[in-house]
Amino acid sequence: MGLLGALAISWQLLQPGVEYASPDKLHIVRVDPARATLTVALASELGAPRTAAEWCRASNLSVAINLGMFQLDGRSNVGYLRHGSHANNPRWNAYNAVLALNPGARWIDRDLTKDTLAGYGIVVQNLRLIDGHRRNVWAKSDKRWSEAAIAIDSKHRLLFIFSRAPYSMREFNDLLLKLPLDVAGAMHVEGGPEASLSIHAGGIDLDLAGSYETGFWPDDSNRKQWPIPNVLGVVRVR
Question: What is the pLDDT of residue 218?
Answer without folding.
Answer: 97
